[in-house]
Amino acid sequence: MKYALFLGCTIPARLPQYEASARAVLEQLGVELVDIPDFNCCGYPMRNFDEHSYMLSSARNIALAEERGLNMLVLCKCCFGSLKKAEHQLKNDSTLRNQMNEALDGPAVSGTIEIKHLLTVLFHDLGVDVLSEKVKRTFSGLNIATHYGCHALRPSEIVQFDDPADPKIFDRLVEVTGARSIEWSKRLDCCGAPLLGINDDLSMDIMQKKLSDGKERGADYVCVSCPYCQLQFDTVQHMMLSKRGGDGALPSILYTQLLGLSLGIDAETLQLGMNEIDIGSITDYLK
User: Which strands, in side-by-side order, build the sheet including 115-117?
Assistant: First the structure.
């Protein structure tokens, strides 16, 4: 099983523990990752400003993966949403596809590959049964609030990730580790990251409501699989607690770190210590 790994811009710059833990987990599961150094930004920052520039950025990445005959495995849900939209439009609009290929003047897009998020690969391509067989240690008494993120669920007809109103994939993947995925009313709400830098107070208010709901429902940790959501729940929550105080943190753990611990990968390799809010005590739940 082989994929072209698309890291995007944020993970290498701000969240190296996501890349490190993802690589360690996927290697343990026998998934081969191919790095394509020529990958560029997915185009997400330009989506609302210059549609042509956004589409050209995404099209170039897709063309580079197609040139190697590889589906793309994406860690960032913003990148995933952008690339899925581009994939959908390029496959269904021959005029647009021809325009992009002419502008690229190199590897061309023909619509032969798929864009897949990490969770899609784990759930559909590998499967829960395979993951369960690989698990070496399970968590006991650990309650997890799974945060799906916006870009993986909507628009559902394009991303085709899960039922946007009642998704289950992430919950089932969390439960593979022995942890319990709790029911919480705000699990599908935005984390507030898109507002950071525009209206910080509103961004933190949105996050605080999610965190309060998770804690009230008994969560020990929130679990994410998107760099922007992780930065919001970890780095920004840490900043918010320093600024506003409160009744303590609800630490955030990347799914690759959670699964990695269950696969027997050590905390140093998974870079648990890179998180702003300490998550080292999660190992106390392992049996």
Answer: 32-35, 2-6, 72-74, 115-117
Q: Is 212 helix (H, G, I), strand (E, B) or coil?
A: helix
Distances from the Cα of 239 to the Cαs of 8, 190, 243, 248, in angstroms? 25, 19, 6, 12
CATH topology of domain 2-118: Glutathione S-transferase Yfyf (Class Pi); Chain A, domain 2 (1.20.1050)
User: If 0-12 CB within 10 Å is exposed, 13-18 middle and 19+ buried, where does residue 13 land?
Assistant: exposed
First and final CA of the chain: distance in angstroms?
A: 30
Q: Do domains 2-118 and 135-285 have the same CATH topology?
A: no
Q: pLDDT for 26-36, tens place per residue? A: 999 999 999 99
> Nearest CA to 143 among 170, 185, 174?
174
pTM: 0.97
